[in-house]
Design goal:
- The protein is elongated.
- The N and C termini lie far apart (80 Å).
- It is mostly beta strands and 345 residues long.
- The protein has one domain.
- Strand 19 and strand 20 form a beta hairpin.
- The protein is 2% helix and 42% strand.
- 23% of the residues are buried.
- Strands 2, 3, 6, 7, 8, 9, 10, 19, 20 and 21 form a 10-stranded antiparallel sheet that branches. A 3-stranded mixed sheet has the order 1-5-4, with no helix packed on it. Strands 11-18 form a two-stranded antiparallel sheet.
Length: 345
C-alpha cells in the first residue's frame, strides 16, 4: 500500500546533491539606480562640440551569494552545510555593494553643409563593482569568490567595461554634377554627379578578463582561483600569446593567487565600414537608388577577449585570444561587399 503525501505540512526534504536557490524575505534590499550628468557645449561656425561627465550608481544590485561555501583547504567536509549532508550549491539572492560608472564623453559634430557631415565621439569610462560569473551588467550572477572574508577579491572592473571608445561617422557628397562646384553640366555631370560617400570608423578597448588557475590547490568549494602575477604583464598583440606568459605562475597550495579580477584586457577592436550610393531620377515619379557597401574595409581580424579556458595558467593554451568578437554585424567579420538597387516611387 502506497502512503499518500502529507498535505498538511509544507516542509519537504531536499536532496543534498540538488542545487537550491532561495531568498531571505526578512532582509531583502531592493536595488535602485542613480544617474547624473553635466554637459558643456560650444558652437563654432558649422561645428558643435560638447564635453559631458556622465555617471551612474547601481546600488544594491542583485547577486546570488553562495551559502554552502568552504574555507581554503576545507574541501567538501568544511562546507557550511556539510552537517546537513548538503554538498550542492545553495544560493541566496542578495546584494554585494554598488556598481559605479563614471565617464568623460567628448563629441564634435559638423551639421550637413557644403556637401559633408561629420560626427566624432570619444568616451573614456570606468565601471567598477563586484564582478560575477553569470550575471548581466553586474547583476544576478554568482561572485567567483564565495568565502565572506575574501569577498573584496570580487571587486574590480566589470565584465562589460570598455574604457576607451572612438566612433567617427561621415557623409561626403562628391563635388560633381548639377549645383556642385565641378562638372555641373554636360556628360561629366550625368556620369559623376549625385554620388555620395559614407563611412563609419570604430576603435575601442577589448573587454577585461581574469588570469585564473586551477582551484584544486585552493580546495575551497564554490570559490575560483586566481593566477600569480610575478611582474607587470607586457601586451604583445599576438593572439597566440597576448601577454608575456613569463609574468604569471601557478599559485602555491593553500592561498589565493595574487592576480586580481578582470585586471587584463583582450584585443582592442579597429574597424572601418564604407558606402557609396547614388540616386538616379528616371522620371518625376520614379527614382533608382544604387548603393555599394563594404564592411571591414581593412579585412582586420576582430578577436574577442580571452575565454575562461585560455585564461588559466594551468592550460597549454594560456593567453591565446583566438575567439572572434561579436561586432554586431550578424557574424560577418571578414571583409564583405554588398550591392543593392532600389526603385523608389
Amino acid at each position: 500500500m502506497v502512503t499518500p503525501p502529507d498535505l498538511n505540512h509544507s516542509i519537504l526534504p531536499w536532496p543534498g546533491i540538488a542545487n537550491a536557490n532561495t531568498m531571505n524575505n526578512s532582509s531583502w534590499a531592493r536595488g535602485y539606480i542613480e544617474t547624473w550628468n553635466l554637459t558643456l557645449e560650444k558652437r563654432l561656425k558649422g561645428w558643435t562640440g560638447s564635453a559631458t561627465y556622465a555617471a551612474s550608481r547601481a546600488v544594491d544590485a542583485m547577486d546570488r551569494i553562495e551559502q554552502n561555501w568552504g574555507p581554503i583547504g576545507g574541501g567538501a567536509a568544511g562546507q557550511q552545510l556539510a552537517k546537513f549532508s548538503r554538498v550542492a550549491s545553495n544560493l541566496l539572492f542578495g546584494t554585494m555593494g554598488t556598481t559605479k560608472y563614471d565617464s568623460l564623453q567628448l563629441r564634435g559634430q559638423h551639421a550637413y553643409a557644403s556637401g559633408f557631415q561629420v560626427s566624432v565621439s570619444y568616451t573614456f569610462s570606468k565601471v567598477l563593482g563586484y564582478a560575477n560569473t553569470t550575471g548581466t551588467n553586474g547583476a544576478g550572477g554568482t561572485p567567483p569568490v564565495s568565502i565572506p572574508a575574501y569577498y573584496r577579491k570580487n571587486y574590480g572592473p566589470m565584465q562589460t567595461n570598455v574604457p576607451q571608445n572612438l566612433q567617427i561617422t561621415g557623409i561626403y557628397q562628391l563635388p560633381f554634377g548639377k549645383g556642385r562646384p565641378w562638372l555641373n553640366s554636360g556628360l561629366g555631370s550625368k556620369i559623376l554627379g549625385g554620388w555620395q560617400l559614407s563611412g563609419l570608423f570604430s576603435a575601442y578597448s577589448g573587454l577585461p578578463f581574469t588570469v585564473a588557475a586551477s582551484a584544486t590547490s585552493l580546495n575551497a568549494p564554490f570559490s575560483s582561483q586566481f593566477g600569480d602575477c610575478l611582474a607587470p604583464a607586457t601586451y604583445t598583440g599576438n593572439i597566440l600569446q597576448l601577454y608575456t606568459k613569463s609574468s604569471f605562475a601557478v599559485p602555491s597550495t593553500g592561498r589565493f593567487g595574487t592576480c586580481g579580477i578582470n585586471t587584463l584586457r583582450g584585443p582592442h577592436i579597429v574597424n572601418f565600414d564604407a558606402g557609396l550610393d547614388r540616386s538616379i531620377a528616371i522620371t518625376e515619379r520614379f527614382n533608382l537608388r544604387f548603393r555599394a557597401e563594404m564592411f571591414n574595409v581593412g579585412n582586420t581580424p576582430h578577436h574577442a577577449t580571452i575565454n575562461a579556458t585560455n585564461s588559466s595558467v594551468n592550460n597549454g593554451t594560456f593567453m591565446q585570444a583566438i575567439d572572434i568578437a561579436n561586432t554586431g554585424r550578424e557574424g560577418i567579420d571578414e571583409r564583405a561587399v554588398r550591392l543593392s538597387l532600389k526603385l523608389i516611387w
